[in-house]
Here is the input.
Amino acid sequence: SRRQRQMCIRDRDRAYMSVFENFISSITGGDLLGKLIVAIVLVCTIAVVSHVLVKWLRHIMQRDDTSIPQSSIFINIMRGIVWGLGCCFVLDTCFNVNMSALIAALGVGGIALSLGFQDTLSNLIGGVQISFMKIVKPGDNIQVGSSKGVVQDVTWRHATIKNRLGETVIIPNSVISKNAVVHLPPPERVSVPFVATTCKDLDVVAGEVERVAHGIALEHTGIVKEPSVLFTEITEGGLAGKVVLEVEDAAQATPVSDAITRAIAPLVRA
Here is the structure.
């Protein structure tokens, strides 16, 4: 039956563990110094295994066909699982620590700890949620409240974004999971609104603005998408429009926007 198979598997695992413990005892002779040496060897082995698994996970995350975002929260979870299981194995094997009783004690104490670490647990769960559901991932240009910028990383506690001023903004994961997240256009896109009060033909104005914007953008960086002028509405002050383009270097988007604003001001005024 299924229960008998489970009992056989459990007995087999206990037999393997007993053989391994006897092997350790034969090496160390049962003394404390020998156990410490074996524990150090096992810890070094765990470190190597953790490094290999983390490197493998990074390789998987960097593939184009993967569904896992390149967030360090998954790396930290993998590293935590490996070290947690490894430490339990070392304590049980080398120092005869009853891990079942220890885990049970931690489970009882975990209730008290969870009350004291509500914010930490909220950020951890929020980080896993927004990463697995791909609400926010590195490279996204987002706005949360009054903060906006490009996501650099999502850790177990917070998300790091960098705005156009080069400032790094730290947003707790719980804040992102509880508030509205606005996905903005790519940071390489430059959009300069203006109000035209000139009496010139609109096609002439659009051509002049596009030509000036093209030249200014090339002075700073390359152009991915050529400038295009769109007139959106008629207002009391004039015709509202904007010039839109995409540049190669996102860091130059703000200087390009500033330079275009200064250059087209004389062209759109009467």
The two ends are 91 Å apart (CA to CA). The mean pLDDT is 81. The first strand starts at residue 141 and ends at 144.
